């Protein structure tokens, strides 16, 4: 069964598209570039639904006890397929999200109900046999005209593994499909975002890996951390819609007082969200206060419009990058190399490329010193 699942790249665009292909709505992935206290500064911490941690895997003893998933009310599946740890870590987070935050879509909703009373190992087998999940996962299979065969004495490529972190009923858990059950990290301190507690645990693990790498004489340390957050494009659209309803009500309130205003919105008031001030609430405020509401709404609409444009550009870039991932560019590269070789321009192009790469490396090093 493991041979039917490919390895996929750890990338926000890949993971967001993967979830959407399975049918999940309302989420996207954001890469975390720092593990300091400022790690989540650019995110709305209350809209972080989970973390996915990628690290270089090595066989080691982990004495941390696992808890019973059923007793703690957690969806947990053991990993039974080698190449699906990324998808399994993502599913572990999504399956434990509330319906209020994440729309799992018809397939995962049915899947969660079907596997609710199964043991963790059977849940893992159910994932491996889910055609929609496997199809979405394998849609990111790297196309290549050549098959690379490892020499029998070769150590092969480094192994990497994904684990998930969630908050459930005020406690942070680590979900690692290679374990027998969830690992209880601890309680979330009062007044502290749960992701901060998870960040501390990830930082602890990285520091432990770093010490081990130093002891082994290896300075290499590779890891990646992503947050599963609310879909920013959808959030911006909802925010704009809400502000338009409020601006329209405020403007109508001003018109009723013979104020000169420009009616910018044509929305059906019967569809207005329940949490915005009513006409009666607005009529109780003086004209300057209502005009201030209109101004704030306009400012927010402009701000969210900019967010929408930015997110649309990101998604267009993700789509282009994912298309390249699915394309086999080897024939194009070979054709270009043959063409350059015939014109005796292959080696000069190669040297030019080497020089450009060396320059970028030096510029990156210089930028890192400032």
Structure report:
This protein is α+β, with helices and mostly antiparallel strands and 370 residues long. The model has no long low-confidence stretch (mean pLDDT 88). The longest helix is centred in the last third of the chain and has 39 residues, at 287-325. It has helices spanning 12-22, 85-94, 105-115, 120-128, 131-138, 194-215, 232-255, 279-283, 287-325, 330-342, 346-369, and strands spanning 27-32, 48-56, 160-168, 171-175, 183-187, 223-230. It folds into three domains: 12-145 and 156-230, Peptidase C12, ubiquitin carboxyl-terminal hydrolase (Ubiquitin C-terminal Hydrolase UCH-l3); 235-304, no CATH class; 329-367. The record marks 79 as: Transition state stabilizer. It catalyses: Thiol-dependent hydrolysis of ester, thioester, amide, peptide and isopeptide bonds formed by the C-terminal Gly of ubiquitin (a 76-residue protein attached to proteins as an intracellular targeting signal). This is Ubiquitin carboxyl-terminal hydrolase.
Short description:
By secondary structure, the chain is of the alpha+beta class. It has helices spanning 12-22, 85-94, 105-115, 120-128, 131-138, 194-215, 232-255, 279-283, 287-325, 330-342, 346-369; strands at residues 27-32, 48-56, 160-168, 171-175, 183-187, 223-230.
Helix content range: 40-55%
* Strand residue percentage: 5-15%
Order of helices and strands: HEEHHHHEEEHEHHHHH
CATH topology of the largest domain: Ubiquitin C-terminal Hydrolase UCH-l3
* Mean residue pLDDT: 88
Total domains, how many?
3
Contiguous uncertain segments of 5+ residues: none
What separation lies between the terminal Cα atoms? 49 Å
CATH hierarchy: architecture of the largest domain: 3-Layer(aba) Sandwich
Q: What is the CATH C level class of the largest domain, in words?
A: Alpha Beta
Tell me about the biggest sheet? 6 strands, antiparallel
Spatial shape: globular
Strands ordered across the widest β-sheet? 1-6-2-3-4-5
């Amino acid at each position: 069964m493991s041979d039917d699942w490919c390895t996929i790249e750890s990338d926000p665009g890949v993971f967001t598209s993967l979830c959407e292909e399975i049918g999940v709505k309302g989420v996207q992935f954001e890469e975390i570039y720092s593990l300091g206290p400022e790690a989540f500064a650019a995110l709305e911490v209350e809209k972080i639904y989970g973390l996915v941690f990628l690290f270089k895997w090595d066989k080691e003893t982990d004495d941390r006890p696992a808890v019973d998933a059923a007793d703690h009310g957690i969806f947990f599946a053991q990993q039974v397929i080698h190449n699906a740890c990324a998808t399994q870590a993502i599913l572990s987070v999504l399956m434990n999200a509330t319906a209020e935050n994440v729309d799992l879509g018809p397939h995962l909703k049915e899947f969660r109900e079907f596997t609710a009373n199964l043991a963790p190992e059977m849940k893992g087998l159910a994932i491996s046999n889910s055609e929609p999940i496997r199809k979405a996962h394998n849609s990111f299979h790297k196309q290549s005209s050549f098959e690379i065969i490892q020499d029998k004495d070769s150590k092969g490529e480094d192994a990497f593994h994904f684990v998930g972190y969630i908050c459930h009923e005020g406690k942070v858990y680590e979900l690692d499909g290679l374990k027998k059950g969830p690992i209880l990290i601890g309680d979330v301190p009062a007044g502290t975002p749960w992701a901060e507690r998870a960040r501390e645990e990830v930082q602890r693990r990285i520091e432990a890996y770093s010490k081990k790498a130093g002891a082994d004489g290896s300075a290499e340390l590779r890891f990646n951390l992503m947050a599963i957050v609310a879909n920013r494009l959808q959030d911006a659209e909802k925010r704009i819609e809400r502000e338009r309803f409020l601006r329209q009500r405020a403007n109508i309130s001003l018109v009723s007082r013979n104020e000169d205003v420009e009616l910018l919105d044509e929305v059906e008031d019967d569809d207005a969200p329940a949490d915005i001030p009513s006409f009666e609430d607005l009529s109780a405020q003086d004209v300057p206060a209502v005009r201030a509401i209109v101004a704030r709404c306009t400012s927010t609409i402009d701000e969210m419009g900019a967010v929408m444009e930015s997110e649309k550009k990101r998604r267009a870039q993700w789509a282009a990058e994912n298309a390249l991932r699915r394309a086999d560019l080897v024939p194009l590269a070979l054709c270009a190399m043959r063409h350059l070789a015939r014109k005796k321009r292959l080696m000069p192009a190669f040297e030019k490329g080497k020089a450009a790469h060396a320059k970028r490396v030096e510029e990156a090093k210089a930028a890192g010193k400032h």
